[in-house]
Specification:
Layout (H helix, E strand, L loop, with lengths): L18 H16 L8 H23 L4 H27 L7 H8 L1 H4 L4 H14 L31 H10 L1 H16 L1 E2 L2 E2 L6 H22 L4 H27 L20 H8 L2 E2 L4 H6 L6 H6 L8 H14 L6 E2 L2 H17 L2
Parallel strand pairs: 3-4
Antiparallel strand pairs: 1-2
Helix pairs in contact: 1-14, 2-3, 3-4, 3-10, 7-10, 9-10, 10-15
Length: 363
């Protein structure tokens, strides 16, 4: 393994690497050695950052300062919601993975965009980089499939009677994701020191200053400044519109990568004390791409429709994923390893819906 993949976790043991894993990493490294492509510090990435950040600023200014009629504010709110996700997918996500730049200070600074739009880069790094990327689709370890009693994403979770309707009501819950994140999740994690049942070290010193400073900044731009120009009910109403749209988009994009019919949900053999596959094969068996041929969607999602490539090499900028995808898929085929990919976005969405409905009735 190279430093382009995250370290294998120590809480769950995976099988030892085989020729397949070594050959896969070798071919990806060779690709970068034989081309002029850069793993990080990519000009196209800088341009995307400028465009997405500008999109956010312009949309916000139109809503608050332009004095638009109600329909203009609605359109600008939709634009802002789309822009916030574009910035998160393209800038924050790569930066927190260390894939934006080879300079740690640049990654850290660009990752702080998340602190300015209602989240916490410190807590996201623990939640997403460690628990999700190390243990995708493993119940009790992957925080992204742990939603309490509200829904059942894996066959290993307890089934409640109301789950029979989860494929219907889940879309509304997805809409609440950003609101819950802004107003509750990060504060709960900070004061309890836990992400679900996982204990984490709470932010201290400068990290704590950034945590609370980011929250103050977000609440100021989300509620205080708009309330100087509009009635508070207008402010709250448009916040809900922006945040719910943001939540649905974020949820769907991440769920299409793992909670679909094709993905597996393996568990560690308690008696043997080890998984029945290597870490790389586990990533391949639990992760699914979608709409790889859609360049517009790839641009907007920051390559998150190439989740296989992202999970195998999270330290490489997403600009490189389309080319890497061909290498990885070809290598998987040679070694008879399954490479999951949906042809289009709707194919992935349909598979996610079917998986939710299947778990709604499965024992």
């Amino acid at each position: 393994m190279t430093n382009e993949t995250i370290a294998e976790p120590n809480q769950i043991r995976f099988a030892k690497n085989t020729e397949f894993e070594r050959e896969l990493v070798k071919r990806v490294n060779t690709y970068f050695q034989n081309t002029s492509k850069s793993r990080r510090d990519n000009f196209r990435m800088y341009l995307k950052s400028f465009l997405s950040i500008s999109w956010v600023i312009v949309s916000y200014c139109l809503i608050v300062f332009a004095g638009l009629p109600w329909w203009g504010i609605v359109l600008s709110s939709i634009s802002l919601s789309l822009a916030l996700n574009a910035k998160a997918f393209n800038v924050m996500h790569d930066a927190i993975h260390g894939a934006y730049s080879k300079h740690k200070i640049v990654n850290r600074l660009m990752g702080h965009w998340l602190d300015l739009i209602g989240g916490s880069s410190y807590l996201w790094r623990n939640k997403h980089n460690h628990y999700h990327h190390s243990y995708p689709n493993i119940a009790g370890h992957d925080d992204d499939v742990e939603v309490g009693i509200f829904a059942r994403f894996t066959p290993h979770h307890k089934k409640y009677f109301f789950h029979r309707f989860q494929h219907i009501y889940i879309w509304f819950l997805y809409g609440l994701l950003a609101i819950k994140w802004h107003l509750f999740d990060d504060f709960y994690t900070y004061f309890t020191g836990k992400i679900n049942d996982h204990e984490i070290e709470r932010p201290k010193g400068l990290d704590a200053v950034i945590f609370f400073g980011g929250k103050i900044f977000f609440f100021t731009i989300a509620f205080v400044i708009p309330s100087l120009y509009y009635p508070i009910l207008y402010v709250l109403g448009f916040y809900v519109l922006i945040a719910m749209m943001q939540g649905v988009i974020m949820s769907v994009v991440f769920q299409l990568a793992h909670c679909v019919e094709e993905a597996e949900f393996p568990m560690q053999d308690e008696e043997a004390g080890i998984m029945d596959r290597t870490w790389i094969v586990h990533q391949l068996s639990t992760t699914v791409n979608f709409a790889r041929g859609n360049k517009i969607l790839t641009w907007y999602l920051g390559g998150l429709n190439y989740q296989v490539e992202h999970h195998l090499f999270p330290g490489i900028c997403h600009i490189n994923y389309p080319d890497m995808s061909q290498i990885i898929e070809r290598t998987c085929k040679e070694y008879d390893i399954t490479y999951f990919s949906h042809g289009g976005f709707l194919d992935g969405l349909r598979s996610h819906y079917n998986w939710l409905r299947e778990l709604a009735h499965a024992p």
